[in-house]
Design a protein that fits this description.
About 50% of the residues lie in helices and about 10% in strands. The longest helix has 13 residues. The chain is globular, with a radius of gyration of 11 Å. With about 80 residues, it is mostly helical.
Length: about 80
């Protein structure tokens, strides 16, 4: 299994299917402008700063989030880290 953190460490870009699934996971309930910005950031996620919470976001073979205690709060934190 590969996490988003692994992709950033290895400078490996995400493919279109991974981006689409991440958008479904992270963009739920967001406004259009936020979704557009999030999609641009995911396209270039491999050159962004790495955050520890990205180790919980699995992108291969399936996109899934391994939550601790507060799933909605942690998803919002991941989104906030990606958006800067």
């Amino acid at each position: 299994m590969y996490s988003l953190s692994d992709h950033i460490k290895l400078c490996r870009p995400l493919n279109d299917a991974q981006i689409m699934h991440l958008m479904q996971l992270l963009g739920k309930g967001c406004r259009r402008q936020t979704k557009e910005k999030l999609e641009r950031r995911l396209t270039f996620a491999h050159i962004q700063q790495n955050h520890g919470i990205y180790t919980r976001l699995m992108v291969f073979p399936n996109v899934q989030y391994v939550a601790g205690q507060d799933y909605p709060g942690e998803i919002a934190t991941v989104r906030k880290c990606l958006l800067g």
